[in-house]
User: Fold these one by one.
Assistant:
Number 1:
Amino acid sequence: MTVGSAASVTGPTAATAAGVAGAGGVERSGRAGWPELPRRRVPKRARAPRVFAIGQELPPGLRWTVRALSVLSPLAAWFALAASGWVDPTFLPSPAAVWSAGMEMVRSGDLLTDTAASVRRVAFGFGLAVAISVPLGIAMGSLGVGRAAFEPVIGLLRYLPASAFIPLLIMWLGLGEPSKIALLVIGVVFFNTLMTADVVRLVPRDLLDVSSTLGATQWELLRKVIVPHSLPGIIDAMRVNAAAAWNFVVVAELIAATSGLGYRIARAQRFLQTDRIFAVLVVIGLIGLALDVGLRLLRDSVGRWAA
Amino acid sequence: MGGVTGGGLELRGVVKDFPTRRRSGRATRRALDRIDLVVAPGEFACLVGASGSGKSTLLSLVAGLIRPTAGEILLDGAPVTRPGPERGLVCQTGALYPWRTVERNVGFGLELLPLPRAERARRVAWYLEEVGLTDQRRSLPRQLSGGQRQRVAIARALACEPEVVLLDEPFGALDVQTKEDMQVFLRQVWQDTGTTVLMVTHDVEEAVFLGQRVVVLANDPGRVAAEITVGLPAERGLETKRTAEFRALRSQVEDLVRAGQRVG
Amino acid sequence: MPRRTLAAVALVAVLGIATALAGGCSAKPTSTAGQPGGTIVLGFSAWPGWFPWQVAADQGLFGKNGVQVELKYFDSYTDSLNALATGSIDANSQTLNDTLASVAGGAKESIVLVNDNSTGNDQIIARPGIASVADLKGRTVAAEQGTVDHYLLLLALAKAGLSEADITFRPLPTDAAAAAFVAGKVDAVGVFAPFTTTALGRPGSRAVATSRDFPGAIPDHLVVSRALLTDNPTGVQALVRTWFDTLAWITANPAAAVTIMARRAGVSAADYATYDKGTTIFTLAQNLDAFTPGSTDAHLDYQARKISDFLVQTKLIDTRPDLTSLFEPRFVQAVKP
């Protein structure tokens, strides 16, 4: 406890209850007379379940167990449900039925041709979308005029549902592959452009300034600074939109398709072949997964420097 | 080495206004008001001032990244209009290319020139040696400490043989020991290369230690309040900071900075 | 908010949600078709032989026969086929060949009535420059995959000595197929009325084959799920009776009937009148004849076997359908003439 100097009061047990002069000279009342601060009761259980602690990573063993369970449990439930006989096999075919339907499609060669057809469409459609959206996104992200010119239009077009374009695409491009590929492009290109532009905009100002002082021209800034810096982010955007494109291929195959995984599902539906539908869905899921893992690996190898 | 290779810098009546977003009152804010400044070839000059005095703006103007509202900036008599390698820049964040190794960072400016690969490699190796990072030449920036990164940034600017090197608070983010090591290192490099140096810092002690001349900027609007010649010997080590002359100079500059700090 | 009030509001909210859920569960989530007096969901799509159902609904003729019917119109014929096959509706309007395909896939359905035979309103329409079916070789033809006009196309090709391999087939829903043909995207199209009117809008186009060339090949039916048959035969009987009552009403009020049906079809009354010859509505007598077993085109069981063979041979289906208890003649037999 100090006496006299008001400026060095140090605790709620200050002697003066009359008031303390603050820095600005305004009178503030002291903390004497305040009721005791309520304290929370610390829960008795010292060992709270570590599994549910916020922000804590699980120990590796536990983590892999939970991951394995998250995949195996639905699978086990499926087996059990199908075996129990509670559900009509038309509505939920057993895993065994799905497997044999899948094998039958492999043997007849249908699965290969359908997969090839769908993959080819997505490859062309997504490839074209990337070829358009990445340069456009880079232009939009680095140039003020690029952003001002394209952002309003793209911001609007992005909200138009691609499937609404189907009748127009048939009229403009016919019933063959071009209209299906165009549908895929429409579904993906606007989002990819905007996401690419966002990534490009994040190149630090300092980096661009220093590069200018080192003598880089506009074109060299783009080639040697903006593109390498943005590449991991661009691949990430591609990863997200590749998944969307792959999902879209089923919609694209509504336009007079005679082969493809989406087409196969529509055919199977007519004959109540739900085991086939499930088998095709599994194939679609596995290919989507492979696509994602592939792009993730690409991003990691390209973006090793990005922490 | 030690001959003067740097160019002379001259600022005449430089004014810089920025548009403000305030709806009422002025449409522009005056960041720098009629700055007249001369830096002799090969001189090490430091700019100090309280925050808001426009030090970084002045450096950006000299670098050519922004244009003055009025007045001229001359390097060896030629007006400065755009950024270029004759005015190298080192900023506080270092701004290294994270995807390039140390030696490819240092070589960035040289890659842009029509230089044979072997020649470029020779120069890069020399500057890496100069900043003491030859062993780290294949490392990535994220593997380096803060001080090492700034050394790479300095080497990168120097490799282009600039007439003047501009440094914007380059050691602001470093801890005290590293900072002092970097100060000694920077003086050594300056003496070895003979480049003109204009450095902005808010650390008065650093400015007095490094500079031959300290320019004090007052704020709001930014203007030259005073110029102090640092009458300390050319050979300076960390022990110099403990001498009476050093402390006197430091106090003098600190008072000037504080005087220039007054609002309005 | 004081803690007590907050607790009270939360309690009320929880109770409210629980009550709603409970109420929702106790209300019948699925169709009431199974009970006598329950609502039967009857599906139909665009075809002159089925538009009379709209007249029946508008004139309250279902009610007069003591049955509650929810009439469900489908823009996509295939969607209606899938709906009956999966049990989302209780009864549907389908052709014989499409019913056989559904049954081949495992659907449990029975045919209780012949609405009509297609006698010209299913057509293969081609652009100018294609004079006959033989000229379709190497051309593109659009039709709805696996259904009645795909089947008609294959019949016509077979008759001309060709097969599907000789053309480029473009599967499209019937309305889209007609639109694509008019837009010049395909050389020929297989459509049924009223889309024949759309397709013929392409200048110079004409039908190179119609269902008139294949009498008895395309009967149209009221098809019900086996579940409905077992649970509510009274309702099914009422449906069949309503049909004949509707036919009588249409005969007595031709202009009014055409107005209703043309509106449902989306064409003018004048255009609708042109469909008259192409769809031959079956009388009760014709129904009775059709349902008796026999070995000519006039008998449904013969047609069913013939069509099944054709569907398997042209790979429209994989396995032959089980024809036992496919046809249920008792409902038409119980109708008093």
Number 2:
Amino acid sequence: MNFSGKSFVNKKKYAWLKILLIPTILFGLIFALNAFSFQIKNSFQVLSFPIQKTFSFAGKSSSNWIGSFLNATNLSKENYNLKNENQKLLAALSILQSIQEGNQALSAISETCQDKNFTTIMAGITGLNNEDILTINKGSEDGIKEGMPVIDQYNVLYGKIFKVYKNFSQVMLISNKNNVVNVQTQKIISKEIESNIDTDDKTSTENIEENAEKIIFEAEKNVNGIVKGAGGLSIFLDLVPVDDKINNGEILITSCIDQNFPKDILVGRIIEIQKNDQKPFQQAQISPFFNLKSVKNLFVITDYKKDI
Amino acid sequence: MIWFWSIIIFPLFYFFAILQTSFLIYFNLFGSIPNLIFVLFFISIFYTPKNNYYFIIFVGLLAGIFLDIISISQFGISIILLIIIGLLIKKIQFLLKDNDNGYSLFYFLVIFLGSLLIYNLVLQNLSINLINSLIELVYSSVFAIFGFFIVKKVLKNRKSNKIF
């Protein structure tokens, strides 16, 4: 009886010891993990990079293969649309080239904003998590710093460098809930394409001047707003005054107000406007231009002029 | 069995972390990716005997470390959250009737969806995107159901409804 009572006391003692010891060890471990967080995360990425690369390649290939099956019925329609779009773009290209040569006014507009020249570092994608954070295989050793903008070869904005490790970096996509980008609508090209395709006989200098005037006029009407991340790779346009006119299909580019990104980087296309006269601002759903399924490499802008 | 599982679970978590962040990103549904690490954590906890607190802490710790590695957050948030969820799962299971065939898929799914929702809510400070979260829950539960049937098949030849 005495023995069992003693063992009961011992058991109780050990139970208390366990209750105290387990959280202490746990918090000690968490503290140690945080102290070496930089090295742990960096080592994980360095060790996993070859496997991640293989998995990423396999994922992209199989996704494209499955996608081609699913889209087989839409191929002819897509082909027709692409041909049409190509014709429009070719027409627009010739107009823009001639405008560029003769138009002095256009350069006056660009003087107000920064030069587009910047230097970049190419990086490969190694991962993505549920918080819309991309991982790229370039880090502080390659000259990457926090806050640097990330684009692709088509000048499409992906986001900015969020955290830099020795051999890799985390990119906060523009669809991340904490991301905000100053944008403006780009009406110049789309409107000019439409108006000039119909009048294909006009290619004279007179027409060029006319076009230039239109461009200046349209550029002044560009609407400014803010693109916010909604999570799940989606974004929306906000803070556009209710009196400003925006249309579905309009392209959004970064504006020169934004000091975090160079201007004129493609962001997305307006797909649905949500206007309420009782609210001072209108919102719109945006189809982002960034596409993780098709992108091969990303480019980190390391240096660009920030002056407005 | 538990020793075998304790050894194999580390490479499994590592494999799932890489699979989740590099392969499945190309199969995202409206931007949502299934949380495979959580699925593995849940299945391991679901089939652990009730009083095996050390194993629950161990699995929560491992899963938390991997989830924190692939996220932008500090180490510790997922670890503590998963250990608490793991202990809660066992408490809830204790209240449910443990029949001869083990737990039903219905119980499994309800507890899984509830615990993943709690995890996402706490991790994102209650400001989740409802549609994306729902898609993630459904997407993850597809993998969880798959895991449930695999474990059930393994247990078919055993008398116990616990994996360990």
